[in-house]
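TASK: fixed-backbone design
INPUT:
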């Protein structure tokens, strides 16, 4: 293969790769996508909770009125309040989520519910 042709090919591959990385990153930092992928199964589209024992995240003085730091810690490590029939699994069961991702989901929930 001629060198110029090869170079163009490599450039094309690089462009593709960058596109892929950017789109993966856009997914990772988008709170709404994370919520709809990972959290909606339990908390429901409107945050009121789909199963018995789920907290209603829309209550004004409810769970989301806690400090960001507390909520991020509880979402990251998992959390069960006294007497609760069910625990919040660490990172909602999606171990890939970073603290940054969880902050973004928190923002999404505060804005939407
Ligand atoms: C398997 C079901 C399930 C999934 C999936 C889930 N949660 Fe939860 N979540 C719970 C339950 C149950 C509680 C209440 C736990 C308790 O108070 O004992 C809870 C509580 C919470 C709380 C309140 C914590 C507190 O300090 O009171 C937040 C915030 C939260 N979840 C966010 C999320 C986010 C964000 C996701 C997705 C990344 C998620 N949850 C995925 C079940 C789930």
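OUTPUT:
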């Amino acid at each position: 293969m001629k060198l110029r042709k090869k170079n163009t090919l490599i450039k094309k591959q690089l462009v593709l790769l960058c596109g892929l990385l950017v789109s993966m990153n856009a997914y990772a930092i988008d709170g709404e996508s994370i919520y709809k992928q990972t959290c909606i199964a339990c908390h429901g589209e409107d945050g009121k909770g789909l199963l018995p024992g789920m907290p209603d995240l829309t209550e004004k003085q409810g769970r989301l009125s806690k400090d960001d730091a507390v909520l991020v810690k509880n979402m990251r490590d998992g959390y069960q309040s006294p007497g609760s029939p069910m625990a919040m699994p660490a990172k909602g069961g999606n171990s890939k989520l970073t603290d940054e991702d969880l902050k973004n989901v928190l923002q999404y929930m505060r804005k939407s519910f």
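COMMENT: The mean pLDDT is 87.
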